[in-house]
Amino acid sequence: MSGCLEAILGHQFRRPDLLREALTHRSMSARRGGFSNERLEFIGDRVLGLVMAEWLAERFPEEQEGALGSRLALLVSQPVLVEVAEAIGLSAALSVAPAEARVGVKLRATVLADALEATIGALFLDDGLEPAQAFIRRVWQGPMQALVAPPKDAKTALQEWLQAKGKDLPAYKIVSREGPSHAPVFMIAVASGELVGTGRAGAKRLAEQEAAANLLQQLQGKGLV
Question: Are residues 118 and 186 part of one domain?
Fold first, then answer.
């Protein structure tokens, strides 16, 4: 399967172990000498953000930071990551523990999103920014072209919906903070009733946007938005 995936990625790995690591779920870490794709996901998240920011600035040269930030938050959000991961058939290449595979872990949104970012991290570590950039620009063509106008800020959209329903304003909470002080990763949560949206990013603002977008997606799924 790795050969097929290399064809999809458009890159032949000089270090195949990086691709294997990117495709290894943490449930397999005990079987794989303690490693999983979490380290590469950490790197890939930042590579994706950099490549996407450069692409957006190039594509929309007249837009200011606010509009570009809204586009970036959407393009690197979990739903879009899952859309891309499914489009390239990434789940079939994932290595998970048998018990986890039986309950459908390979199809979980968080697992697919993390594996895609880990794959980007593997491309970057194997041969630098160029192959990662080429891959991102190719597989994100659809989501990028769909952004005719800047999307409404997810936090603003959530706040407006809550206000319209007479509900309390959203309260964002830091669930966890990982990584070194110069490159932290924040996990943020926001709730509406029993529904909880979560977001994970290298900046609190982006993690809050992801959390709001995740909660809105759940509300939409229940027909509430």
Answer: no
Clarify whether 127 is annotated catalytic. Answer: no
The answer to whether 160 is a known catalytic residue is: no
Question: Does residue 177 share a domain with residue 142?
Answer: no
Strand partners, 196: 191
C-alpha to C-alpha distances, 214 to 62, 163, 170, 180, 195, nearest whole angstrom: 29, 18, 13, 26, 10
Which of 94, 129, 146 is where one domain is finished?
146
Active-site pick, 21, 41, 45, 210: 45
pLDDT in tens, 119-150: 999 999 999 999 999 999 999 999 999 877 77
Give the pTM. Answer: 0.71
Point out the catalytic residue in the list 41, 114, 117, 210.
Answer: 117
Note whether 7 and 114 are same-domain residues: yes
